[in-house]
Amino acid sequence: MKTFTPFRFVLAVCLLGWAHAASAAERTSVRGGADDTEGRLRLGLRDWASVDAPAASPPSLWYVSEGIVKQTENTIVNNKKALKPDPTVEREGTMFVYQAGSSFADGELTFDVYATDDDGIGAAFRWNALDKYYLWYMDGQRRYRTLAAKEGFTYEALESNRRGFETRRWYAVKIVMEGQRIEVYVDGEREFATLDARHKQGTVALFCWGNSGAMFRDISFVAKSAGPGKGAADGVGEKKEGN
């Protein structure tokens, strides 16, 4: 029968404790919303919930097929102002909300987006409710992209341009959140950069407005530890305070 020396006993206890801590950390990461160490979000039936804006029709149809999230209904709130090419106007449609991400705060959200329809498509982040989130959005028919903030009855376009998008091609999107600092990159190019203090954390939601051919893939969120934010010296505009 083998006996443990004091050194071997202490070493065994340390190794057992390390293994238990690593296992607990892995379980915590999964509970926090990531499906693996690269931050990919789970795509199970219970992991997402479709949320249509009040008065939106027809009802949305979100589903997952072969690792791609799809939405195939022309869901929209009928608003004549929204039909005009104005990037400051709110367009209400449908969202596919990730259920395990309510604690997402600083970090990087990445995904690929594709559409066969040229109406609106994008993603919300730091989403807490239908009236509390940030939104990156692009519209091919009206030829614009925007970064907006929604809080209560207030919808504000923080940044916008006239790029729109082409149908039937994938776009790689990265949204970087660090405190009040928000940056958006499309196909590796920085498109928007601003400071806003309204929403500090919240989950991710995919978004469509009148787009019946939307697809999203490789959706990931990688958390970043808190640190001092960067300011206007890096090309970021003035901070916008919430109510």
Description:
Helices cover 11% and strands 42% of the residues. The chain folds into 2 domains: 31 residues; 205 residues, Exo-inulinase, domain 1 (Jelly Rolls). It contains 1 helix and 15 strands; from the N terminus they run αβββββββββββββββ. With 243 residues, the protein is mainly beta. The strands form 2 sheets. The protein has an 8-stranded mixed beta sheet, with no helix packed on it. A hairpin with a 2-residue loop joins strand 8 and strand 9.
**Elements, N to C (H/E):** HEEEEEEEEEEEEEEE
Shape: globular
Q: In order across it, which strands form the biggest sheet?
A: 2-3-14-5-10-11-12-15
Tally of structural domains = 2
If helices are DSSP runs of H or I spanning 4 or more residues, what is the number of helices?
A: 1
- CATH architecture tag of the largest domain: Sandwich
Task: Give the helix/strand class.
Answer: mainly beta
Q: Could you name the CATH class of the largest domain?
A: Mainly Beta
The CATH homologous superfamily name of the largest domain equals Exo-inulinase, domain 1
Strand proportion: 35-45%
Q: Separation of termini? A: 71 Å
Helix content bin: 10-25%
β-strand number: 15
